[in-house]
């Protein structure tokens, strides 16, 4: 199982130095991962979500554990 703390650390690494911040991470027993981000004042774009999703995916190994990943915001 992929640990919630692992995903939180990866998300924080990617978001560091940006106007974006992590709101919530959830990981189910089946490795269904959901990451919610926000931007102060709103305005999280699809490109922001895609960039974070690609960053997280590039650091996880599907050969070790299969997973699904959804990155979004309350506004998307």
SSE topology string? HEEHE
- What is the CATH architecture assignment? 2-Layer Sandwich
Shape: elongated
How widely separated are the two ends? 28 Å
Helix content: 25-40%
Query: Which CATH top level class fits?
Result: Alpha Beta
The CATH homologous superfamily is called K homology (KH) domain
Q: Low-confidence parts lasting 5 or more residues at pLDDT below 50?
A: none
Query: How many distinct helices?
Result: 2
Average pLDDT rating: 95
Note the main sheet: 3 strands, mixed
The largest beta-sheet arranges its strands as: 1-2-3
**CATH-derived topology:** GMP Synthetase, Chain A, domain 3
Rg, Å, rounded: 12 Å
Which structural class matches the secondary elements?
alpha+beta
Per DSSP E runs of 2 or more residues, the count of β-strands stands at: 3
Q: Estimate nothing, just give the exact number of structural domains.
A: 1
DSSP strand content: 25-35%
Question: What this model shows, in words?
Answer:
- The protein has one domain: GMP Synthetase, Chain A, domain 3.
- It is elongated, with a radius of gyration of 12 Å.
- Strand 2, helix 2 (46-58) and strand 3 (68-72) form a beta-alpha-beta unit.
- With 76 residues, the chain is of the alpha+beta class.
- Strands 1-2-3 form a three-stranded mixed beta sheet, covered by helices on one side.
- The protein has helices at 4-15, 46-58, and strands at residues 20-27, 32-39, 68-72.
- The model has no long low-confidence stretch (mean pLDDT 95).
């Amino acid at each position: 199982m992929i640990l919630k703390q692992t995903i939180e650390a990866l998300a924080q690494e990617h978001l560091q130095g940006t106007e974006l911040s992590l709101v919530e991470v959830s990981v189910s027993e089946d490795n269904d991962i959901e990451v919610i981000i926000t931007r102060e004042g709103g305005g999280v774009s699809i490109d922001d979500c895609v960039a974070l999703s690609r960053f997280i995916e590039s650091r996880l190994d599907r050969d070790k554990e299969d997973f699904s990943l959804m990155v979004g915001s309350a506004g998307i």
